[in-house]
Input
Amino acid sequence: RVVPGVSGQLKLEAVGSLGFTVNGRNTRDITIDPREGAELGLGSYRLSFEQAPEGPVMLTVRMIDVEPEGRGEADGFALARALPSKRVMAWGMLAAILLAFLAIPIWSHMTRARVAPDYDKPGTVMMDASWRPGALSLKHHALEDNCEACHAEPFVAVRDDTCLACHKDIGDHATQRRQTSARGPLDWGDALQWDVAHAFHKPGPGACTDCHTEHEGAGRMEPTHQQFCADCHGTMDARLTDTALGNASDFGKVHPQFQAVLNTAPGQARLQRVSLADHPRQWDGLRFPHAMHLNTRGGVARMAQRLGTKSGYGAPLECNACHRPTADGVRFLPVNMENDCESCHSLVFDKVGSTYRTLRHGKVAEMRADLRALGRANRPQIVAQRRRPGEYGSSGLYRAEFGGPTTGTALLARAMAKQGLCGECHIPAGAPGSLEVMPVTQPARYMINGWFDHEDHKQEKCTSCHAADTSSSASDLLLPNIGQCRTCHLGEDAKKAEVPSSCAMCHSYHPRTGAAAAPPRIARR
Output
């Protein structure tokens, strides 16, 4: 700013933080006499002050070309003189990027040898990782630098046949014709979107990539949302009139009652699939009362207490005394006579010196031969002071029908009686005097179209789902129905559910057998 001074002088002051020049000298404030003349420099502008004797002050403003700092005689030695201009460098870098990250990958992809996709072979397309839009899932992480294993054709979406090159044994959910019928015609909006998608070579609907999307980040693939299944299964009976499947669109609202596959009668040639709503009975070839074995005040409990902790007992029985989980925690191992039953239901039949002889369970011919070999003479009592679990024997001691003096012939004759050596647990299948029994079945899975993971429910008591403590017959089917499961599990969008549950939590889209048929949370174990 210019401030009039005394005696015709002018005072110049810098208002901001930057100064100015007066006659070539840098300053922030100065007082000048315009009669002597002065030049004020402000950036590229020059202000000249002049005053004739007894005349007004003349101010002249002009703009000049300001040389950049550092320019001068030494400018020829600066690095900038050796480099191209910024424009040339920018275009050069753009060309290099296009060459390295576009032209080279496309050229190497177009000229590579066409081979079948291989998960284990390294990629042959150069610098294709720069095109990756996101990390691959854990299952496909080895393909991070092998894009052509899936993207067989440039600028073409992944096709089903490429997926099937590795996933050869994947099961079809249903035939394509049947899936199309179940899905029904597309509305105009979906049809328009698919027309656009097909113009860019995207397969579908019903393609592998409709469910399995990649480049969503490291980790396991997220399960398919409930709506994908409900699109067909929600009103499937309207389009597939021959299906035996009930409509299912939401586990908490629309889902049929569970159906179990089991034997319902002796000698049944094929397993039968029945709804739990019909309260079915199962035939497993055994006589076994769960309630008696779980009674905390009965003879079985007393027997377990007498056996003590050294024998693995010491307290009333619980479910885990006989039902042991598999290594993955999903299901349970079959109950085994030698490991789970013989501690109480002894098969000892003779004593030679200090050695006890035991009948070989399940080997009928050998058992018959061992009992006949005892002869007709009475033998001394083997087991003493051992009370029988459940109902007491005639003498009050646990005799296993051979605890007291008897003969091998007598043991064989009454082995199949309801309180006999074999008939106590097994149902006879042969003529009187035979040791043949009805086949024993222990299904590993009852729900063939769904999966259940016991490991995820280990915080619950067994009896909260299985009413074993009130079951007095082996024919009781101790499976929870859908109502019991709905106390915790409701549909994917349920706001008040303890466990919002989508279809993929229990069902696998691909109907295979073994661990591969399970949902991802079980199959990955």
In short: The first strand starts at residue 2 and ends at 4. Residues 384-388, 390-403 have pLDDT under 50 and may be disordered. The two ends are 81 Å apart (CA to CA).
